[in-house]
Write a sequence for this structure.
């Protein structure tokens, strides 16, 4: 979480010199943006998090110059700004790539394959956690739960969703990013650079035509309950991971509609699909009604 | 097993109740046009025809309880705001959804942001607030994009801004993106973060209702709680109470994830069971069985297949020794190592501990050291009691609920799977093959 002063090349005993200022034109432009951000809040200090996103959109990471700028416009000390900038994981403190590829390795995604994806990606890219490829395109990191567990394993690129990934799909993804081929998330808009993303996080809407409607209303997993409630067929797995596997065969069969006289828990009785452990007291919970 | 008689003879059409998710599959579902076609902003008209006090009483009578985890009655939270105190009042919507396993607010905001905006206008009218904030976690840019668009649409249509629908109500709504910190889901840490500080929890009292944002009376509500309010107003509190139970009325989003055949969102009356949800959705992935699951995210004590019939409402889950939490039903099958799962969650808590209080900061660190050793086959039997002891020194003794959450998976996994921990110690390693747990494990000749 912390960056030691030695990492920034400062030796003990010699106070760090003040950060260099932004060039005048950059500063003037950022001040206009900053005024707009500050006006959104009853108290100017509330603008600090968006302002840190703003300076990150300028340089790709939060620099000392950026922090000095935030301190100046909010009338804070640089210590106060640094304390905040170092607390939150989305602020980068060193130069990084155009595309931040984050592999979820919190428990559920990790178990579902996130660990394997992260491992293979490190090998494929030749970089470790938090490191950037030589071409400056891709920064790899593992991330915490990103609220998309029903699409596990999940990978985020510049905080757009790439759902239901495998090592193969993610390797292709980073290859495309490095080759400059257009990449579209499963949920979200066609990728822009990390800097452009940071500007949206500062509160400036994405003005690209089609960006808001890109990828449709909802991902497939978000709709499974709705479709069942309407009596529609069992949810189609549009995306992998399990297409081509046993699950696909199931979809060809008529969906079982329990009759009023039938006990819903018919799967409690051992059935031939309980091969994994027919003796288990709860019985197989899969394959009900077949 | 036995099902409640009224649920026994019904299929998913009867067991599920899509309200917030009812039109997520429509083209451009996030737009004002589609929302209005589905009777959007009708609840607001009803609300504005009532007095603010009557409105608070109405929401209180509906029995709506917070959907962010704690289950506190929403109307009561509104009622706690002192009136006539001369201070500005604020509504802050907690959209920082970061609890591992929790994935309901993000799809809700992506597909139907206007339900939240309408709920915000209603809530602000009730608590006499003229400025509301949506604190959205920063790592979900697709949702931020749609919130920006929806808020702009609502301003243009006169649902936000000055003199809303001619009622005299003025309301400003600010969308605020966070910057990556789980602790900011804790309401007082969220307020500190929104004030431009490190997200660390505050000592209570004073509670946010008295001294919240900028030390003014503040309501902090979860996205789903506020988004549920318009439907209650529009269709009536009796309709709402006709679902769920006496103490846990209404509908809610259940998020099924993990080794299930059909992970996703299932909106249903409170009190549905995991067995019912699995039965209607194809169960666990073919050929596997449920081993352990969380009812409401990683901070809620885990359950096993013994708990398939626990009614998933506040009382039912509480009586079974856990918490309803965020209804994040993470299901793991028999291929999953529980020690690995708990180790990873604990690493998460250690990473996200804000460092303010000693039990959580130090305790989570040491839990990680012990768990990593056990998972790597370097543990000793005495470590198991030590784990329990450390967790006990965090639970209830830390500054905020993050510490309690960190203790939950430790206690519950030791309770149900102590043998598996012992196996790691006596067998000098993890007996599980992680490759078998992956989403692609059962696909033939692909990505093995």
């Amino acid at each position: 979480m912390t960056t030691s002063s030695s990492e920034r090349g400062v030796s003990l005993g010699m106070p760090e010199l003040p950060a260099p200022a932004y060039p005048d034109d950059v500063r003037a432009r950022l001040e206009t943006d900053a005024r707009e951000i500050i006006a959104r809040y009853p108290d100017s200090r509330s603008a600090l998090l968006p302002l840190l996103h703003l300076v990150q959109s300028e340089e790709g990471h939060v620099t000392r110059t950026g922090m000095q700028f935030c301190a100046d416009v909010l009338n804070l000390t640089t210590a106060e700004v640094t304390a905040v900038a170092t607390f939150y994981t989305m602020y980068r403190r060193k130069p990084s790539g155009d595309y931040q590829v984050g592999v979820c390795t919190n428990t559920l995604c990790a178990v579902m394959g996130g660990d394997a994806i992260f491992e293979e990606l490190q090998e494929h890219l030749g970089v470790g956690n938090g490191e950037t490829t030589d071409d400056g395109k891709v920064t790899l990191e593992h991330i915490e739960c990103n609220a998309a567990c029903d699409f596990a394993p999940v990978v985020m690129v510049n905080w757009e969703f790439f759902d239901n990934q495998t090592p193969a799909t993610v390797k292709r993804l980073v290859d495309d990013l490095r080759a400059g081929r257009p990449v579209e998330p499963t949920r979200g808009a066609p990728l822009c650079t990390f800097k452009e993303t940071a500007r949206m996080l500062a509160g400036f809407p994405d003005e690209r035509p089609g960006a808001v409607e890109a990828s449709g209303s909802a991902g497939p997993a978000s709709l499974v309950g709705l479709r069942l409630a309407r009596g529609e067929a069992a949810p189609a797995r549009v995306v992998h991971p399990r297409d081509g596997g046993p699950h696909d065969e199931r979809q060809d069969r008529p969906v079982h509609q329990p009759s009023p006289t039938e006990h819903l828990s018919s799967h409690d009785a051992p059935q031939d699909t309980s091969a994994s452990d027919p003796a288990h007291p709860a019985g197989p919970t899969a394959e009900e009604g077949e | 097993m036995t099902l409640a008689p009224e649920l026994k003879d019904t299929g998913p059409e009867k067991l599920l109740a899509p309200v917030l998710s009812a039109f997520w599959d429509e083209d451009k579902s996030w737009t004002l046009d589609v929302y209005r076609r589905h009777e959007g902003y009708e609840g607001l008209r009803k609300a504005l025809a009532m007095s603010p006090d009557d409105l608070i009483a109405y929401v209180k009578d509906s029995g709506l309880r917070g959907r962010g985890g704690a289950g506190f009655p929403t109307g009561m939270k509104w009622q706690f705001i002192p009136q006539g105190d001369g201070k500005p009042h604020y509504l802050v919507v907690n959209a920082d959804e970061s609890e591992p396993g929790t994935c309901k607010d993000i799809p809700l905001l992506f597909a139907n942001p206007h339900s939240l905006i309408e709920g915000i206008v209603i809530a602000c009218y009730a608590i006499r607030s003229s400025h509301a904030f949506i604190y959205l976690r920063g790592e979900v840019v697709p949702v931020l994009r749609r919130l920006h668009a929806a808020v702009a649409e609502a301003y243009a249509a006169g649902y936000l801004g000055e003199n809303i629908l001619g009622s005299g109500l003025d309301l400003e709504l600010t969308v605020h993106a966070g910057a990556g910190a789980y602790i900011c889901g804790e309401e007082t840490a969220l307020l500190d973060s929104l004030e431009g500080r490190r997200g660390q929890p505050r000592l209570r009292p004073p509670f946010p209702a008295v001294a919240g944002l900028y030390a003014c009376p503040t309501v902090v509500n979860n996205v789903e709680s506020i988004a549920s309010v318009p439907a209650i107003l529009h269709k009536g509190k009796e309709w709402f109470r006709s679902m769920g139970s006496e103490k846990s009325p209404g509908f809610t989003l259940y998020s099924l994830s993990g080794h299930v055949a059909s992970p996703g969102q299932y909106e249903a009356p409170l009190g549905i069971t995991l067995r019912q949800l699995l039965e209607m959705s194809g169960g666990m992935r073919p050929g596997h069985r449920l081993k352990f699951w969380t009812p409401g995210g990683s901070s809620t004590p885990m359950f096993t297949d013994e708990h398939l019939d626990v009614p998933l409402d506040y009382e039912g889950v509480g009586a079974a020794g856990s918490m309803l939490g965020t209804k994040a039903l993470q299901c793991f099958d028999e291929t999953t190592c529980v020690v690995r799962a708990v180790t990873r969650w604990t690493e998460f808590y250690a990473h996200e501990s804000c460092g303010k209080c000693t039990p959580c900061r130090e305790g989570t660190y040491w839990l990680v050291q012990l768990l990593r050793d056990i998972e790597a086959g370097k543990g000793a039997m005495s470590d198991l009691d030590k784990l329990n002891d450390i967790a006990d020194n965090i639970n209830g003794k830390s500054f905020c609920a993050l510490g309690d959450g960190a203790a939950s998976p430790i206690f519950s996994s030791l309770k149900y799977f102590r043998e598996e921990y012992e196996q790691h110690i006596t067998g000098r390693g993890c007996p599980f093959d992680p490759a078998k747990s992956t989403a692609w494990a059962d696909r033939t000749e692909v990505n093995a």
